[in-house]
Design goal:
With 178 residues, the protein is mostly helical. It folds into two domains: 52 residues; 80 residues, Response regulator (Rossmann fold, 3-Layer(aba) Sandwich). The chain has seven helices and three strands; from the N terminus they run ααααβαβαβα. A three-stranded parallel sheet has the order 2-1-3, with helices on one face. β1, α5 and β2 form a beta-alpha-beta unit. The longest helix is centred in the middle third of the chain and has 32 residues. The radius of gyration is 31 Å and the shape is rod-shaped.
């Protein structure tokens, strides 16, 4: 009977070690300091009170992180014209959209037939109407030739006098040289 009990205990220990090894990586590490503090707390109550104070301090420090988030939101509310004047275009000078200005643009999605890109096209059409500008050309590759199709469109747009390309890039390392 004693031999069976030892085998059972050994099997339980092995199962415990195996299950512990399969556990999550970051959570047990975070709980380990808390367990050490709990073990030390019964021995001395004063250090436990001192340890409780540092855990409350990060909660007070969380308030300053909320304020910058509000400050960051304010600049996004600026008119689009001011944002266009501040941000330089990839080619150098910033292009400022003025009502009635004739500017050739292309809206180039990853590939055609995706709802979000169709919605972006609708928004671009509305913006062009609002500015009195010509509507952007909505063109794109198929799913089968998405990267090569984008490269061909970007390359040909440069020779056709297109002033701006609105692109949802498929492969930046391949399209950037184009």
């Amino acid at each position: 009977m004693l031999k069976k009990l030892r085998v059972l205990v050994a099997l339980l220990l092995i199962a415990t070690v195996v299950l512990a090894a399969c556990g999550g990586g970051s959570e047990p590490a975070a709980e380990a300091p808390a367990e050490e503090a709990a073990v030390e707390a019964p021995a001395e109550e004063a250090p436990a009170e001192e340890e409780a104070a540092p855990t409350e301090a990060p909660a007070e420090e969380a308030a300053p992180t909320e304020a910058p988030a509000e400050e960051e939101a304010a600049p996004t509310e600026a008119p689009a014209e001011e944002a266009a004047e501040e941000a330089p275009a990839a080619g150098g000078e910033a292009i400022v959209a003025e009502p009635g200005q004739e500017i050739a643009t292309i809206l180039l999605p990853k590939f055609l037939g995706i709802l979000v890109f169709d919605q972006a096209n609708t928004g671009a059409q509305e913006a062009a109407t609002e500015l009195g500008a010509p509507a952007p050309e909505f063109t794109g590759p198929t799913a089968e030739n998405s990267v090569q199709g984008q490269i061909e469109t970007v390359t040909s747009a440069a020779t056709q006098g297109v002033a701006a390309i609105m692109i949802s890039n498929n492969a930046g390392d391949q399209i950037a040289p184009a």
